[in-house]
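User: Structure tokens for both sequences below?

Assistant:
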Amino acid sequence: MVTNRVRSGTAVEIKQPKRADLVAEEIKRLITEKDLKPGDRLPREAELQQLYSVSKSTIREALKSLEVQGLIKVSTGPSGGGMVVEVPLDRTLQLLQNYLFFKDVSIDDIYTVRQQLEPELAAGAVPHLTEADFAALEANIECCDGASGPHDHGRLVRQRQEDMTFHDILAAANPNPFLRFICELINEMIRQLIEFRNDTPIAEHRRFGASNVKIHREIVKAARERDVERVRALMVEHMTEAPKHVKRMKGKLRGRLILDSEIRKRVRMITSTSAADDKEA
């Protein structure tokens, strides 16, 4: 239904929300009121039809809308229906990149924010790091150490992407969920959106990698000693030096939108690459 509203002598067209969109809003309200968590199931389609007095096609359109938003997963079959899921970080990144695509965001802008947040994130994680976390941090460092293995451009770029996993591990240990979310989001932006020219000298990649490995090892050492202030200071140093390397390597943000096919296949590529290298050796 379309209605007209007259404003200062001009007819303004106002579109009424579609019935499926209204139902989707009501299902969101249902999720909130019933305090449903990821893994909880929504009422079956027939129940939702009866609850909102709409057709099966309207319910399915509403559920599809919520699935596109990343709030639910819809399955078919006798036991099918909608299930609440946690909105994936990849989907959030995609929505943010859709927004930033039309803004003039630079690598300097990203690292200015990281310089403020990463030291606090790392410092806050220190008291909560477990032996499993330290093992993961050390494994990541070894994985990203460019001193061994082949030094082709593709592998070195993947190592720089995998460097971000070190920061993800620290983020996961920080008890502040909002700080953790923001830092993980920035990490994923860097991993997916910063690209380096193919003619960037291998020596520059190796220099950046060696710098990351060195300071990551120092951060782990200080964290094992539970030296919060030392970890904070090292991360400030790290976030100050990293953008200098990126600029020398002529890194830039990809000027295009992220495709669904790209976020669905996001994997930690270094692990599989390392395994392949070991097999070849």
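Moving on to the next sequence.
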Amino acid sequence: MSDFREALESISEAQCSEHPGFSADGACTRCGTFVCAFCALSWAGRCFKCVHAAPELATRRARLAASLVDGAALLLPCLLLGVLRCLAIPDEAAMNAPAVYAPALLVLFVQVSLIRGTGASLGKRLLGIRVVRRDGRPAEVWRIALLRNVLPLALCGYFGWLGLVDALFIVGEERRCLHDWVAGTRVVKAPRAQRSFAARLVTG
């Protein structure tokens, strides 16, 4: 009890590291530096230094799960519509009609909208991760769409083994696939306030 009282007294007597003259209202949730009520409210309990620190890299498990979610979101609606069409018109091939691919176009539109707003596709958003440039700045939509997705898919169509090489690059210390190096991006954990409950369970 006395230790707890001493801790409270030390906080009440301390000043905010970022705003001298303001009494400390708590401690930074990342490094323990004293912060005032303004910092606690504006920066989710972190000090200025920690807010602007380099974000933590996304785990390999989270990146794999996000890729699976994105792939399922793109393929499953088309497959379902194809199966329903096959049942309705048994004599025709299920995937011949252009309408079968309409859900994929809708998913791509949603993905682009999410990436433009958050730097994260549907899968990455659910897993609490996002794509940023190597220096930490937000990544442009064209950089993510063209250099991280379209170009690798096009090259893998000609060189099938390139997909495996691309994925194996993630075992490096920076956890960057080959397409990350080409696009000058990396995948990091989103700020905790922007992460869903499911993302916090999976990625910590």
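User: Anything stand out in the second?

Assistant: The radius of gyration is 23 Å.
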